[in-house]
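Tutorial sheet, problem 5. The two components below are modelled jointly, 941 residues in total.
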Amino acid sequence: MSRLLTISDIYLEGRSEEVWQPIINGVSLTLDKGEVLGLIGESGAGKSTLGLAAMGFVRDGVRIKSGTVNFDGTELTTASAETKRGLLGKRIAYVAQSAAASFNPAHRLIDQHIEAPVQHRVRSRSESIQDGMDLYARLRLPDPDHIGFRYPHQVSGGQLQRAMTAMAMACRPDLIIFDEPTTALDVTTQIEVLAAIREIVEQFGTAAIYITHDLAVVAQMADRIKVLLKGDEVEEADTRTMLSTPKEDYTKSLWAVRGFTRPVKPPVPAGQTPLVSIQGVTAAYGKAKVLEDVSFDIPSGRTVAVVGESGSGKSTAARCITGLLPPVEGQILFDGAPLPATYKKRSKDQLRQVQMIYQMADTALNPRMSIGQIIARPVQFYMGLRGSALRNRVNDLLNQIELPPEQYAHRLPSELSGGQKQRVGIARALAAEPRMIICDEVTSALDQLVAEGILRLLAKLQDELGLAYMFITHDLATVRAIADSVVVMKDGRVVEQGTKEEVFNPPHHPYTDLLLSSVPEMDPDWLDNLLSSRGVDNIGDEAADKISVES
Amino acid sequence: MSVWLWIVLAFVGMGVLAWVGRRVGQMATSNAPRFRDMPYGVAFGYVFAAACILGGIWLWFLPGAVFFRWAVQGFVLFAIAAFVFRLVFRHVGTAATKRLFRAMPLTAAFGILVIIIYAVLAIFAGAIAPYGQSEILGAANVVPGGDPAMGGNPLYPLGTDQIGRDILSRLIYGAQNTVGIAFVTTLIAFFLGGSLGFLAATVGGWLDQLLSRAVDVLMAIPSLIFSLLLMTIASVWADGEKALLTVYMILIIAVIDSTRVFRLARAVGTGIVVMDYIEAARLRGEGMGWIVFREILPNAMAPLLAEFGLRFCFVFLTIASLSFLGVGIQPPLADWGTMVRDLGPFINFAAFAPLVATAPLMAAGAIALLTVAVNFVVDWMLQKSSGLKE
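Model answer (structure tokens):
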């Protein structure tokens, strides 16, 4: 095989607060024609920056300090703007993380698709449109002859991501950079995008750099894997070797992260009043029903995981419990007594008992308040503590979430990392001394190692304080780690519910089965096995749509 | 016609020069990326900037360009003053102010210096001004400079106006009246528009509709004509009480201007109320006061401050225009708007007696300088507060 891309000893720097700080420290990589290289690492590891540098491109405020990027005989670091214009889009293409944000909402998909081939004079306009339809069909998009004439908002997220892959393929490039193309997608959607990407890359013999933080995904896609940590290369090996015998400690810790599980708790005694009981709740936004006849219980001191894809109504169920969305029918019982439907009618004490932790810690913490102020407010508001008593309580809470008060109390949220912000969110919920906490996708925005830390902290707090958790998530690995019982939701209805053992062991409801089988595993043959066992038309959203909820 | 021909020729010449210059640069540096990837527009920009600087130097030595020389001298002087001001406060004062001045751009130092000078003049106008604002001192002699050879009078450094009052004293008293009133008016407008706007954003529903439509109605009427109308009514109510009329004027301009603030505050507020931390505060059971003033306001500060700088200048100009039309600040109280109006005709002398023509420009310049200064400071504050977020 011939060499396509050689990056040797590249140093990249980013400008922050008037000084240049290193992002990538002397990483080298090579890529042969038709080969797929997986780049993995946590956020801030520099993998996206390195991926862009492979195109000879750097973002604003980033510069190449030294090193070379050689693409098929052309040195990209010193190439003229004109030379690069001739390569980018034509021989090197890029697929971004969020297709929804990367498509121009004002133009139809096909118009954006044909821009590169027409601009580079690869094909005429009409040939490009024909070729676009052909690619859509290969990527198994529904109605390939017409879907291109829709606007980006008229197709679903998974379809958009596939349309973007088709767009990258339009000039039949030699190299495609995939930058976390499935991170924002649900598991069943992710799997169809993965299958489509892999098929088309194999068909056209395109080389690719696949950037992700999800090991199980990269195991399906890549021939070789390179692990990055804070701009340094940790190790590189071919996929099977890397998965079976990782050499470095850091890689091993990444591999072991999914090992966290909690001991099974004794069953809830029969006849015990559940802490929160959702009874026949139907809720709607205007006329659109989003929940239909949902019932489940949350026992005191237990974790109930609510799983389902985006749009399944799991967050809406939480909004009904907190009283932000009064249900149309049904009621919420707290400790056996009905709660007023809207939060405005609830007493201060009722509000205090149920607290929330949000998915995006960035928007959940007021950016203009210090950590100390954020945590102190509920203490002051509910307990009426003042002065040194207040300060002591805040310090206790900060210690509980393992952030030393003297270091963190005066910082603003922007001065904290993602995991630390999420911890502050937990402390704010704890400050109210609640009996139940609703955790809405609390780990989905975090790196795996950090997410595991948050899960361990939540488990520790549950053991110490006897809290009940309603744990909303789409990540089944998290459910396995932390849940006592599971509620599976689809299209606003409860599909299946029971203890963790009941739900995770067969027989499943067909939808639960689809969800469970769509979670990528570390086995590099997993996707092949799945495709051969289920059939290429029986995966992803299409399969989900076929499953009737009523059954 | 020949003028247009010259302009076209100049642009074509600069265009050719830009192309040739870039080419020469490419050859001389053996295709360094700086010249190789330089877009043609940028090359043209360099040539154009060079032409402007050359033009400025040529203008400086032109005997007739008195004002241009003054403007350049004033600019350089103020820049030096601002630099010295910043230098001094980098070494004098508490640790916090020292740090503040160390990170301050020169424009902000310039703005702060000007604002301080204006504030001192306004507050101590009585002590600083050589004469009273309504004191009639003799013959009208608008020639500034105080040089008898040029026709000035050394007793009145900036000359006297058309009925013989000292222009310098009136400029100083004008700071008191114009700036003071504008500041109070802007504050009231912001309090009114800001709190109602945030309230509309937070509560939503019918209250939002009611307030927003009321604001739409107010905004539909041209603001200057509307304030003129209201001032006419107010002057009947005030019944010759000048202080009362001023209070009415403040309220009228504040209400009319608060509609713009309302719109901004509501727009910024609706972006903030959907944040999870607002939801968390609501679920905690917080009252409206806490949500508006503790959760929303600190996060809306940056755009509001920017608006404050702009709005302050607009209020200022509204007062000046009202005074110019005769319904604003009443004579004999000095204010800059009235001064521009009263001395305006002297601008006609610019062609043959440039010094005489400066008379209305001094009040206008005072307005312009403060406007620029306020906006420099606001820009700096914006930069600081938005930098905090990242």
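Marking note: The radius of gyration of chain A is 25 Å. Full credit if you identified this.
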